[in-house]
Design a protein that fits this description.
CATH class of the largest domain: Alpha Beta
Largest sheet: 5 strands, parallel
CATH superfamily of the largest domain: P-loop containing nucleotide triphosphate hydrolases
Mean pLDDT: 85
Helix content: 40-55%
Number of helices: 15
CATH architecture of the largest domain: 3-Layer(aba) Sandwich
Number of strands: 10
CATH topology of the largest domain: Rossmann fold
Low-confidence stretches: 6-22, 28-52
Order of helices and strands: EHHHEHEHEHEEEHEHHHHHHHEEH
Shape: globular
């Protein structure tokens, strides 16, 4: 049970009323938080994070030894976990950053299994006020894990509320207003906070510095993705030989999540059109049907390159001009389309605008004319 200390506004300790037992104090603390925040807009649910799909849960590794790739990250985490277990202490707070689909949530679910503890999962966008965070913090067990996905989306008020929770394992609750206000100090059980973000630069310095362990997840190699495809095929009870597994991996943009999505589609295609037999030809035909080419580009990616090379003669062209020509939001192009094209060296982003590279022309089967 959490411990409470009452102090008045001058900072001096005051004796709690005798009529309050521990349970009533806990009730008062939570009610104070609930009432101090604005009520939720009608029709808006700030509920538990969305439950992972059954397929995703089936394919997700459950132990550190089942994870493929990120070997340097795994080695460092295993050292930290082993040391924490020998000391009998909670693991230090951990921040994972990197592009979507590389395994941040997987690590967050595997680490509690390795530590032999439980995990609570939240999303930064859903924690809009301190009252939304209170139930997670007060329900944590000794040494358990709180995982906050998209932690960069936490509002400033919630972020600052985390500071004392992370450092001192306590939170301060203000009861009342003005000169009659008093502070209720709620001690928390020591826990581990794991944060995941795709935009580490959007985290404030004070929050970022409170994570003892920071790990950046990198892209996966073709061999690693091929192994992931074959392992997950066994979980799905389908047989995938080396050649079709390599073809699926090659078109997955170095991202395990996309490799799993491609595998699920190829399985469906094979069961519908090829009696469940996944050969190289079947895998290629399945991926071509949904417009995924040999580099992993989809229809929107190729349409972007076609617009840049054909209409704008390879550039330079401004993002807004390309977006208007394609009748697509510029945010969609900048956040979803361009990152992979830039990483694949198919376009350049210059001060004058976007430009297509010779590699882009070759991929489209065009002459650059330069």
């Amino acid at each position: 049970m959490e411990q409470f200390r009452h102090t008045d506004v001058t900072g001096q300790r005051a004796n709690p009323p005798n009529v309050f037992n521990q349970d009533k104090a806990d009730h008062v603390a939570r009610e104070a938080i609930y009432q101090s925040s604005d009520p939720e807009p009608e029709g808006v649910l700030v509920a538990e994070p969305e439950r992972q799909k059954d397929q995703d849960v089936r394919l997700r590794p459950r132990r550190m030894t089942e994870i493929v790739g990120q070997s340097d990250v795994i080695e460092r985490l295993q050292i930290a976990i082993d040391a924490a277990r020998k000391r009998g202490e909670p693991l230090g707070h951990i921040l994972f950053d990197g592009p979507p689909g590389l395994g941040k949530t997987t690590f967050a679910t595997v680490i509690p299994e390795e530590m032999g503890t439980t995990v609570q999962m939240a999303n930064g966008a859903a924690l809009r006020a301190p009252k939304d965070l209170i139930p997670y913090l007060t329900n944590l067990e000794q040494g358990s894990v709180l995982f906050i996905d998209e932690i960069h989306r936490l509002p400033k008020s919630v972020e600052e509320y985390l500071y004392t929770a992370m450092e001192d394992f306590r939170i301060d609750i203000v009861l009342g207003e003005g000169v009659s206000a008093r502070t209720l100090n709620l001690d928390l059980r020591p826990f581990t906070l794991i944060g995941a973000t795709t935009r580490a630069g959007m985290l404030s310095g004070p929050l970022r510095d409170r994570f003892q362990i920071r790990e950046h997840l990198g892209w996966y190699t073709l061999a690693e993705l091929c192994e992931i495809v074959q392992r997950n095929a066994l979980k799905l009870q389908v047989e995938v030989a080396s050649d079709p597994a390599t073809e699926i991996a090659r078109r997955s943009r170095s991202t395990p999540r996309l490799a799993n999505n491609r595998l699920l589609w190829v399985r469906d295609y094979a069961q519908s059109r090829a009696s469940g037999n996944i050969s190289l030809e079947v895998a290629t035909a399945a991926l071509q049907m949904i417009g995924i080419d040999t580099l992993g580009l989809d229809k929107q990616d190729r349409r972007y390159l076609d617009t840049l090379t054909r209409i704008f003669a390879g550039g330079p062209a401004g993002l807004e001009a390309i977006a208007h020509t394609m009748n697509v939001s510029s945010d969609t192009l900048e956040d979803e389309v361009e990152p992979f094209l830039l990483r694949s060296e198919l376009i350049l982003r210059t001060s004058r605008g976007r430009m297509a590279t010779d590699k882009a022309y070759r991929h489209l089967g065009l002459n650059s004319g330069k």
